[in-house]
C-alpha cells in the first residue's frame, strides 16, 4: 500500500519542481500598478519603500499609520508606493483592490482616501458579514464608499467601471511580483527593492 502511494507522490514532486524552474516563470511586469503616496518621486532621488497591502486585512490596516508617519516625516528623502495585494482567503479583497484601481483612474488624489476608508470600515467586508451578500451588492456598497472618497458625482462612474472586464486583470501585477518575491501574505514591504523585515511587521 505504501509503495503504491510513493509513485504518485514522486510524480507530483517532479511536476511541482519543474514549475519552479526560473526560466519557465513569468516575468514581473516592468511597470507596476502601485499608487504613489502624495505624488512621491522622482524615485532616483529618494529611498523608495514599496508596501503590499490588502485593503481588508487587519494587519495591513495596523501597519498603515506608522508607515504613513515615517514617509511623511522623511519626505522627500523617502518615497512610498503601495501595491494592492488581495489575499485569497479574504473574499472581498480582490473587489477592494479593484475599487482602488478605479478610484486611482478617476481621481488619483483620492486613492489613499479610499484606502483609509477601507481600513476604517473593513470589518463590514470580512467573510462573515458578507457571507449572504451577492458580489453585485458588495460592488455597489464599495462604489458608495468610493463616492464618499471621490465625491458623489463619481458614483455612476464607479459602478460602471466595476463592470468593465478590462479592470478585472488590474490586481494581477502585484500578485505576480509578490509571487516572484515569495511573499506569503500582507503586509509586506520592500526597501529599495529588498524585503524589509521591520517595515513588513510595523
Care to describe what's here?
This protein has 202 residues and is of the alpha+beta class. The chain has a single domain (33-200), classed as Glutaredoxin (3-Layer(aba) Sandwich), CATH 3.40.30. Helix content is 49%, strand content 11%. The chain has eight helices and five strands; from the N terminus they run αββαβαααααββα. Helix 3 (93-106) crosses helix 6 (155-163) and helix 5 packs antiparallel against helix 6. The relative contact order is 0.17.
Could you give a quick summary of the protein structure above?
This is Thioredoxin superfamily protein. The protein is an alpha+beta fold and 202 residues long.
Shape: globular
Structural class: alpha+beta
What is the CATH superfamily classification? Glutaredoxin
> Order of strands across the biggest sheet?
1-3-2-4-5
Write the layout of secondary structure elements.
Blueprint: H1 2-19, E1 35-36, E2 47-53, H2 58-74, E3 78-84, H3 93-106, H4 111-121, H5 135-150, H6 155-163, H7 172-180, E4 188-191, E5 194-195, H8 197-200
Parallel strand pairs: 2-3
Antiparallel strand pairs: 1-3, 2-4, 4-5
Helix pairs in contact: 3-4, 3-5, 3-6, 4-5, 5-6
